[in-house]
Amino acid sequence: MLSFANYSGDADSKIVREVWARLLDQALTKGGVAEACSVVKRVGSKLDPANGACLPLDIICLHLEKAAVDRLSSGEELVGDDDVARALLGACKGLPGPVLVVYDHLLSNGAIIPSLNLKLRLLRSVLAILREWGISVIAHRLGTTSAGASFFLDGTFSLNQTGTANQGARDKIISLANRYMTEVRRLNLP
What we know:
8 helices; mainly alpha
């Protein structure tokens, strides 16, 4: 249905956005943020992440992050800092680029994110994405899985030891981490 709606001639993808909003609301009602994240991974992974018309990551991300803040602050559901980020990564087949672009867009637009709690949650999600990206770089270098690489990341092995083959990815991760750390410092936190 999402692919079909993409070809309906709807220039701003209003139909697709409405379908996603209903799908997410239904999942949130049925099983909370955990269920909604599961739906995003399951449905999103069948779509092309480069096609923003079928997979409107900005709408999905904002919908899930707002729901996570609301449910966490009300005590209705325990939502991990990385739950939404991992769901979006799953929908994008593990590619951090499209997900980081969405978070960057949301964080740079203060009108969309007026709440300090929501902005902090988005920044925590970005940290989770950068961590996953770092683990995948280490895994690639070591010829292991992400699970094996996370063992090294928690130990004495660091992103600096990944060698020159992954220098570009390492530099990007470090640059983004520094940039988002600046965003954290700008927050008026107690």
